[in-house]
Structures are given as structure tokens and as C-alpha cells.
Amino acid sequence: MATPTKRLLSLDVLRGITVAGMILVNNSGGKYAYAPLKHAEWNGLTPCDLVFPFFIFMVGISTYISLNKFNFEISWAVSRKILKRTLLIFIIGWAITWFSHICKGDFFPFDHIRVLGVLPRIAICYCAVSFLALLMNHRYILPLIIILLIGYSIFLLLGNGYQCDSSSLLAIIDQKILGATHVYTKSPIDPEGLTSTISAIAHTLIGFYCGKLIVQHKQTDKKVILLFIVGFLMMAIGFLFIDLLPLNKRIWSPTFVLTTCGLSAMLLATLMYFIDIREKKEWCTFFIIFGVNPLFLYVLSEVLAIVFGSFGVRQLVFDGILLIFSNLYVASTIYAILFTLLLGLTGYPLYKKRIYIKL
To answer: What is the pLDDT of residues 2-57, one digit of tens each?
Structure first.
């Protein structure tokens, strides 16, 4: 029997902030983007580096809330639902990559198309955490997170994991298993590679555990305080070990996991306080639009970005902005904002009509 779960508006708002942020930074102008809108070149952390881990954290929370409705009882119906969604997200991710090749005149890129990426990572993390939640006792979730992060830390230290070249064991594993022509080509290390997915699963499990804290504590004020404290402790532990294991998004380092999960939890707790307790909701609508249809709007943004780039729309708009603002950095930022607003306008009718497109 399904268990009803009260919906928290703050969850939609954080999802919306995250997806809007992902769209903004993905279209911010490349080399002409301001530093906060760029990923750290290797070790380090920028605001741009926060958006994807925040989303993965939210995947964990959403997984707990979704499976809680079924009392975490495994059945063919629930398993089929998980596998169907996993396959759908995978296929959409591959289709977007294929579409980008088609727009360049490369219609059959199957011998060199990238296998992994943002959407495949989401699919893998969602699938793994869903079945772990159904098959194992939840008291072992926290020990499993610790084991995964410690194991991955040892792997990075012994496997030359912080070396950004082909000598890294991360690069070697990806090329041996996936093939040298099916990995990320802009750097030796695939930012969504196979090995770092282990750490990303631990990341999603942390979100799952925080989802458990949110659902099981009935009093909103207490869950806000607890979530904020848990987030602060995770961030503090992450910073404590950055000399040994620097923050690094490309390899999804354990300190990156703890720090970004901590920041996610604290931000969510803050939003819960202002939105769910004090009911300060007037400013939320824009982000709720993105939050109720997150993956749909993200996928649409990726497709539009490919189309705009391939058929000159992006350059035409950018040149128009340059007629008013001659600074390339300002122009690229304005373009990214306009592009994000376009996706918001697209999602607005869906939000008004309460149409939620599940991916």
C-alpha cells in the first residue's frame, strides 16, 4: 500500500534553482564566460561546479520520496518503473549526443559517439540507489556511503587519480572498458567516467539519506535544524580533508561529494525555513517553473542549444547583443540569461496547467 508524502515546495524551488543554473552555465559563452560561470580547470570549486552535484543530491531525495510511497517494497511493477525510467533517460542522453553529430553532418557516429555523460550519470545513479533502497536494510545506507567514499579515496591515491593525463587509472579504465573513441574528448579524464560514478552513487545515497530525514521527521522546524546541522558537518568534513584529497569535480572526489552535499543540504534547509515555515513564496514562481519539469526543460535546453549553435541562431543573437554591449563577457552572460528565460517561458504554460512531464 502506498504511503502519501506531503509535498514540500522548497524541494521544487531547489530543483528549479539547480536546473536553471545548469542551463545558464551550459550556455554562458565558453572562453568569454566570467569565472563563476566556468568549471574549475582541475582542482578547486566554482559556483558553476555546484549545479550538477546539487541536482544529483536532489535525485537522491526524490528517490526516497518516490519509493516511500511504495513502502520500499520491491515488486515487478516498481522494478519495471525504475528500469523504464533508467532506460528512457539513457536513451534521451544518447539521442542528444547523436543529434549533435547529425547537425554537423555526421549521421552515423556509432564508432566514436560518447557513451556516458550528464544524463547517463543521472540514470545510473537513480537506478543504483533505487534498487539499493529496495533490496537492503536502510540502517546500512550510512555505512555504505562511508565505505564507498573511503574506497574511492584509496583508489584515487593509489591509482594516480589526481593526475590529469592518460596515466590516471580513471582514464585507463574508461578507455579499456568503453573504448578510446567513446569517451570524453576535451580532456584525458571523462568528467562522467565509469570509476567516478561510484562516488556519484555515494553522493546520491547522501541525498537519499537526507530525504529520509525530511520525510520521517514530522515537525518542519526540527527537520530544518537537523538538515542544516547534517549539511554543515558534511561540508566541514569535506574541507577538513582537502589537503589530502582536493576538491575536484572532474573526478568527483570524495571531498567534492561531502562539500557539495553539505552545501545542498544547508541551502535546502534554508529554503524550507523561509518557504515552508515562514511561507515567503512570492519570489519562487520562476524557479518552480523549472522545478516541476526539471529534466524535460534541461533536455529541451540541450536540444535548443545544439540547434541554435548549428544553424547560426546563437551567433545572430550574440551579434545583436554585441551591438548594444561591446564587452564579450557581458554579451555572453546576457545571451545565457536570455536563453534561460526562453526555457522559463516555455515551461510557464506547463506550470500553469499543472502539466508535469516525467522523464
So the answer is: 444 456 799 999 999 999 999 999 998 778 889 999 999 999 999 999 999 999 99
Which residue in this structure is represented by grid cell 571531498? 255
Instruction: Supply the pTM of this predicted model.
Output: 0.94
Identify the residue whose cell numbers are 520520496: 65
pLDDT tens-digit profile of 207-255?
999 999 999 887 778 889 999 999 999 999 999 999 999 999 999 999 9
The cell for 44 is: 578547486
CA distance 176 to 217: 46
Q: Among residues 74, 251, 66, which one has the least CA distance to residue 155?
A: 251
Q: Name the grid cell of 241.
A: 580533508
Residue 48 is given by DSSP the state G
Cα–Cα distance for residue pair 334/321, rounded to 1 Å: 8
Whether 71 has a pLDDT exceeding 50, the answer reads yes
Tens-place pLDDT, residues 257-306? 999 999 999 999 999 999 988 888 888 999 999 999 999 999 999 999 99
Contact between 51 and 15 (Cβ < 8 Å): no
Q: Which of 272, 142, 122, 104 has the alpha carbon at shortest distance from 201? A: 122
* Residues constituting the chain: 359
Name the residue among 329, 201, 203 with its Cα closest to residue 262: 203
Residues with Cβ within 8 Å of residue 92, at least 6 apart in sequence: 119, 299, 359
Cα dihedral: 36, 58, 138, 141 (round 10):
-20
Cα distances from 348 to residues 192, 285, 354, in angstroms, run: 31, 9, 10
Cβ pair 115, 178 in contact under 8 A: yes
C-alpha cell at 167: 596515466
- E strand spans, the chain: none
The Cα angle at residue 178 between residues 175 and 181, in degrees rounded to 5: 70
What are the distances in angstroms from CA 322 to CA 82, 187, 315? 47, 31, 10
DSSP letter, residue 277: I
